[in-house]
Design goal:
The chain is α/β, with parallel strands linked by helices. The chain has 15 helices and 17 strands. A five-stranded parallel beta sheet has the order 4-15-14-13-12. It has a four-stranded parallel beta sheet with strand order 5-6-10-11. Strand 2 and strand 3 form a beta hairpin. The chain is globular.
Length: about 375
């Protein structure tokens, strides 16, 4: 049910164009995954997300466990039926959310004790319970339970997290035995220490069957540090499966990561900044709520084929934002998601045509894809 094929590879950079087959559909890579954290991309219907060209959506096991609970989702027939989404779904294990949202948590070799960010109730996640949770949610791709570390953490603690993540992965694999309908992606950690990234990869790659993820980046380190870690990992990552960089959604990070062999991305960025009035374009971000757009009767981006650009002007969307109408943020969310799909489509085409190095060089010089 799961298969990945590289259809083109840039001989200069190693950027890849691929086809990833899953039980709920075929995904052309590179691909950006909109984030429906709580089984919903904020402000949009699944139909709108699909109309943007989305091939796969991400939801989060931690948030869904806290509310409404995996039992409710399972009783509804799983996430696909619960949220009315018939394309592939990936669920994050919740390791990052436990690290980032819980004010009180205790990490041990057995698992993580933490308090819900909603009501303060006590919970205990283990690799085994996390696998049961994600199996009940029913996503196509599930993530191994890992320990994410913050930027700037000392070497000793980062190494301990690598070892713990590796031991947890073995337990995840033992608890999740069927990769025919639900594929388990292991996660490489190691913070910004090259030797720890290599160690984590060496411990992780043998357990990857049809996909592997790079976690613990885009959490506060510099862009140069992120790119450095991807440079370390590129020759180590297995060629016959998709490489997923977790939590990345800006145009610069995406093209630079693709140039280092990454195939899959996710981030809340496009919808989060949309609600504040920021729109992504091939020539950089613009802030639609700013005064210069008060009487601008052109679309967010000339040449964009999204619903928002085909029917609405910056002046109107700015009016909605200033008036506190949620439709303003929703329209920019549609545009931003479509922009990231247009971007990855453009990059994929360049890889296949053999022009990716020129596209990358032009972006590095001008910060523009035009």
């Amino acid at each position: 049910m799961f298969k990945y094929e590289v259809v083109a590879e840039c001989k200069v950079t190693g950027a890849r164009a691929g086809v990833f087959t899953t039980p709920h559909g075929v995904i052309n890579t590179p691909v950006f995954m909109p984030v429906g954290t709580q089984a919903s991309v904020k402000g949009l219907t699944p139909e709108q997300v699909k109309d943007c060209g989305s091939q796969i959506m991400l939801s989060n096991a931690y948030h869904l466990a806290m509310r409404p609970g995996e039992n409710i989702v399972k009783a509804a027939g799983g996430l696909h039926k619960f949220m009315n989404w018939d394309k592939p779904i990936l669920t994050d294990s919740g390791g990052f959310q436990v690290y980032s949202l819980s004010k009180i948590r205790k990490v041990t070799d057995e698992g993580v004790k933490f308090q819900s960010h909603i009501d303060g109730s006590a919970h205990f996640f283990t690799p085994e319970s996390d696998m049961r949770l994600q199996e009940d949610l029913g996503a196509d791709i599930i993530m191994a339970f890992d320990e994410c570390t913050s930027a700037g953490i000392e070497y000793k603690k980062a190494r301990a997290a690598v070892i713990r993540t590796s031991e947890w992965l073995k337990r995840c694999k033992a608890a999740h035995t069927d990769n025919s309908t639900q594929m388990l992606f292991p996660i490489i950690q190691g913070n910004v220490y090259p030797d720890l990234r290599k160690l984590s990869a060496e411990l992780t790659v043998p357990h990857a069957e049809c996909g592997i993820a790079v976690g613990g980046l885009s959490v506060g380190e510099s862009a140069e540090e992120m790119y450095g870690m991807l440079d370390v990992l590129q020759p180590i990552l297995p060629k016959n499966m998709p490489h997923y960089l977790m939590g990345v959604g800006s145009a610069d990070y995406i093209i630079e990561a693709i140039s280092r062999g990454i195939d899959m991305f996710d981030c809340v960025l496009p919808t989060r900044i949309a609600r504040n009035g920021s729109a992504m374009t091939m020539n950089g971000d613009i802030i639609v709520r700013d005064a210069p757009y008060k009487e601008d009767y052109t679309p967010i981006e000339a040449g964009c084929d999204c619903y928002a650009c085909k029917g609405y002007t910056k002046a109107y969307i700015r009016h909605l934002l200033k008036a506190g109408e949620v439709m303003g943020g929703s329209l920019i969310s549609i545009h931003n998601i479509r922009f990231l799909h247009r971007l990855t489509e453009k990059i994929r085409a360049a890889i296949i045509e053999g022009t990716f190095p020129e596209l990358l060089e032009k972006f590095r010089k001008t910060a523009s894809f035009l």
